[in-house]
Q: What sequence folds into this?
């Protein structure tokens, strides 16, 4: 994840608008991002609280772009307006709910719809000592995706990984077991996605499944289970069957494994960053780095 931040800094500061910027972790992340040359933030929220927070961090508030917008829904709409006007290229959620922000992003008349499904991609370090990234999708936007929606979610995540420099990500279609079971419809959909990939209908990636988490991430577990797919145990992306699975996995990385994480919602006209409000400033900094690389096409 450190390399992710360094690559984003080399790409040049991103124009990041932060609705609800009075939230402590969001403001701390904005300050750190500006100091590192990662972002040039535009702060939307309770101006007095934002200015006080900046001063407490040793910053000169007058040197920052601040807009006094106290209503969370209005702040979300204003952030979208700034992107539509070309004044910002990335949105970072501050102290407002994901629902409030996404309602503004997905507004059919004044939002950032691009004619396709939007979905959340979480990115973290694959494991201790492993110099690669691991993605999880979708634990933040789509609640119970259909097979067609899972395909769109997969395509969004693959595009994100392409922009991160992973030319052909290995995608594990997660389920509770490795065989198709009539009692578990997700297993049949995972098998169908793997078949589409085998036929070349999902370009730019390699999909295998259905597969449980251990068979997706551990070569040893995959061997014990007799999994023969060449990507078994080496997944770059975990495609989850429902939002609860992705949400729990993401929070487990933070609260059980103490790993830094980054989130990006992709499929709209601009990257939208929706870290949990409970995540710290470093995770929000990583999300900004991810947003910069996605916005710039990985350059």
A:
């Amino acid at each position: 994840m450190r390399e992710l931040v360094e690559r984003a800094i080399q790409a040049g500061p991103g124009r990041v608008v932060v609705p609800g910027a009075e939230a402590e972790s969001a403001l701390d992340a904005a300050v750190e991002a500006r100091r590192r040359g990662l972002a040039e933030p535009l702060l939307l929220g309770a101006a007095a609280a934002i200015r006080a927070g900046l001063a407490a961090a040793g910053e000169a508030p007058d040197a920052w772009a601040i807009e006094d917008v106290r209503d969370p829904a209005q702040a979300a709409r204003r952030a979208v307006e700034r992107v539509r006007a070309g004044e910002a290229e990335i949105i970072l959620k501050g102290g407002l709910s994901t629902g409030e922000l996404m309602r503004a992003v997905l507004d059919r008349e004044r939002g950032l719809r691009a004619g396709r499904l939007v979905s959340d991609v979480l990115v973290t370090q694959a494991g201790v000592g492993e110099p690669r990234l691991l993605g999880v999708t979708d634990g933040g936007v789509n609640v119970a995706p259909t097979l067609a929606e899972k395909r769109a979610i997969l395509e969004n995540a693959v595009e994100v990984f392409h922009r991160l420099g992973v030319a052909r990500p290995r995608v594990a279609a997660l389920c509770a077991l490795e065989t198709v079971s009539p009692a578990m419809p997700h297993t049949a959909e995972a098998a169908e996605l793997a078949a589409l990939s085998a036929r070349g209908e999902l370009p730019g990636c390699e999909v295998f499944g259905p597969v449980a988490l251990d068979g997706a991430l551990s070569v040893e577990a995959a061997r014990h289970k007799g999994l023969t797919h060449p990507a078994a145990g080496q997944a770059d992306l975990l495609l989850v069957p429902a939002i609860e699975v992705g949400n729990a996995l993401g929070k487990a990385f933070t609260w059980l494994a103490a790993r830094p994480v980054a989130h990006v919602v992709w499929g709209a006209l601009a990257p939208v960053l929706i870290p949990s409000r409970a995540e710290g400033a470093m995770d929000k900094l990583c999300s900004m780095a991810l947003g910069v690389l996605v916005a710039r096409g990985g350059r």
Q: What stands out?
A: The chain has a mean pLDDT of 95. The chain is about 40% helix and 20% strand.
